[in-house]
Amino acid sequence: MFRSAIVLLLALLSGSAHALDPTLSIAQLHHDAWTSKDGMPGDVWEMTQDRDGFMWFATPSGLYRFDGVRFEHIRSLGGVPLLSNVIATVRAFPDGSLWIGYRFNGLSVFRDGRLRHYAEADGYEPGGVYSVVADERGRTWAATSKGLFMLDGSRWRKIGADWGLDGTSEGLRRDPSGRLWVNTENALFYRDPGVDRFVPTGLTGQHFNIMSAPDGHLWLWYLDKITRLPERLATPPHPRDWWTTSYSFDAIFDRDGNLWHAGVGLYRLGPAALARTDVVHPRTDPGERAPASLTSGDAMTMFEDREGNVWLGTRRGVDRFRRDRVVPAGLPPGYANVSLALDDAGRLWASAEFIRQPRLWMHDGIRLVERPERDVQVLATAADGALLVARRGVIERRKGGTTIRIPFPDSVPQAAMDGGVRTMLDDGTGLWAGFAYDRLYRWDGSRWAPARAFGLSDELPVSMARDAHGTLWFGYRDSTVVALRDGKTRRYGMADGLDVGVVGRVMDAGGVLLAAGDKGLSMLAGGRFVPVRLADPQALAGITGMLLRADGDLWLNGSRGLVRIPAAQWRAFLGAPARTIATYDLFDAIDGYPGIAQFRSGQSSLLETPDGRLWLYGTDGAAWIDPARLPRNRLAPPVHITSVSAGGRTLDAAGGLILPAGTRDLQIAYTAPSFTMPERVRFRYKLEDVDDDWRDAGPRRTAYYTRLGPGRYRFAVSAANEDGVWNPTGAALDVTIAPTFVQGAPFKALCAALFALGAWLLYRLRLRRVTLQLRRLLQERASERERIARTLHDTLMQSVQALLMLFEHARDRLPQDCPDRPLIDRTLEQARDALREGRDELTALRGAAAPAEDLVGAVVPLGHILGEQFGVRFDVRVEGQRRTLCRDVAQETCFIAREALQNAFRHAHANEVVLEVAYGEQAFELRVRDDGRGIRAAARPGHWGLAGMRERAAAIGARLDIGPGAERGTVVALTVPAGQAYERPARRPWWRRLAGGVPAGQP
What we know:
Number of strands: 72
Largest sheet: 5 strands, mixed
Structural class: alpha+beta
Radius of gyration: 54 Å
Number of helices: 12
Helix content: 10-25%
Strand content: 35-45%
Distance between the termini: 78 Å
Shape: elongated
């Protein structure tokens, strides 16, 4: 509401909204009417405009609200029904409240979203309401059929003789000074601010009305006349305020000082005439009266909105009058085939015809004045400013009060006499004229010569022009242009890039030749024509008039209306002809354009008069536009969100909305009350977290969203009027969509937990499968090693042993002193060493399949064998309760232990080797100690025992430490975490463990 108040204050204090030009007649104003077929019934008793910009209408068939596009029948407000459909008065107060007076049932007020009805319990006597205003203290006054009432606080008080009021009130007004005026059935009274008493004015009669003129002076309407308020009753002039501009009267002053009266038809008197009189009799005094056909019914009440439009309430509906940008020239209705030209004095001449009856008019500076000629066919302006008038059988050259008559060529047929001249051009030394049903000729001052004498064809051109260099240009129907200079011709057509259709106009635009046709506009550049492009290509179709003003703006009159290309845009296009001109103005029927441009051969349909106005014609007559005084609406339209539809239900858009769970589609209706050109109001909107930027909705007043998810959204909408003035704040609505169970955070958390559990189960399953595969491979490898060991033992080792025995037997048979005996002994010793090494390798192969249940039992025998072989004491120490190891851990640990024992026995030169095994709760540990000479700093080349031990430890996730002992020798320590070392026993289901009392973890 605060934003609306600011917008309203700016509207009241500024002159930004345009008014109705008092120099224009009512017929020259843009007129629109709405009746029952548009949703607006007749008998409009009163009109008002509220702080939010809406128009309200009180009628005997109900209360209506209007935003410029749609009428809405209001049956309830704030969810509370109105007392009656017979509404006598409706008043918008500056605090945002709306007062509704009924013809019979009393009074209601709509404030802050709540509707309240006043009854006898509030001190109010229900009756017909005539008027409602507020005084300087904010107290509400109501004139009713039961008397005058004042709302002081929460109760009504009836005002009568104790306040100096005599009679029953019939009307109530407040002037800009704050004075209250009350008229009874036969007299007029007033009350000054701060004084609780009424003073009689001494004026008697009925139906008084106090009006404030823009200059602050008060006028009094009564007894069928309007007079200046007598000096004895006058107050110092005050600027007009809310109470003189926010609701309708029988007669009003608009902001330009025009007096409008709705008592006897529609009557208007301009400020110049008012300045010369103190009394106006609308029934009899001279003034402008609108024809009855111009309005939708008998005039009843008048109102001027904040944009300067004048509204008329009638018995059939409501009418609106506004200033047009393109103003009718004042030709009689129905006249067409217009031709325009200027004479040597700069006066405008116009010819037109109605049912083949041509007429001629001259503009006298104020209006078009009809001339007596009745056979004028076409007009043109000569190179020296003379007026060329083509009439039946003759062309007149009028200049300086002298008329020279040029007869048609003798060869022109009789049909051409009636059809007349189609087009004329004065080239400075002669006159070119194209005749209907004939051809083109040139008059040299003494005789006519056909165009073929100058190298042109006999085809009649559609248009002709002369450029700044004296070259003559002729446009034809087949998208062809011919240039004539110094007796030589040059033809341009499709091959030269010219594709505009029928060439309706050729013009030199500041050294640039333009050719326009029914298909578009082209420019001659570098010997070829290039197309001129606008964002809307159709805006350049059917051009019959072109004009380049002194300020550089290019104006084009075409089938879509009047186009203005700003000078900056035109210069930019000339520098880069390949670009598209995006910024331009289009003036069409909404701006007052008369029909569409009439595409026919002849003179230009657009010209400029010395006063700067541009004159043009279309199918509905002639009009003018003043580029220097274009009405501009600088009042930004207020924006409102009217309703929200979701899930098939329509919701009130007041405040934030919480929509039910599962809502996916949203439809938001919005509007922007603007009454000058509501058809041109444009909208843009966005839904935060959905739209990255504003969406351009054009004139559409509904936003649609689908597939929305749960969450909090903020919808924002803004609007611009016909002149592109955007509302800086717009309107916003917070919308919350509750999540469904499956969209809520608990469900998402549950899904995440289930997903994590599933992932963990898959991981465990995968780990189990990989472990089983690894164990199977290890088992297969161990079985294969045992098979190889058995095969080698039963074949190779037995064979070697047999050979040794044979060699020993052979050696024993040799004499003791045989010289070969030492060699044989050495050979036998080497063979025994090889046999021992073979047994060691077989032992290693067979030890690969270490039992997981008894790792110590798998390793200790090797220690004892090695101890006996190398003569070293071997000891075993076991700590903790023995537990079954995982098969792969047992295999790798067995390999590491055997490698460590073999290294200790073979290389340590120790006296004792100790194997220590500890089954701990946190880890499984295996250590091999010796008291030998210690380990070398680096492994010998070609020996990979230590590296293999580390690789095996890493494969089972164990830590392997190899280092010196506490006093001497070496310690090889293997540590495997308990979770990886021990095999987990099968666990019974939890319910069985609970039932049996078995502790968790026990089999």
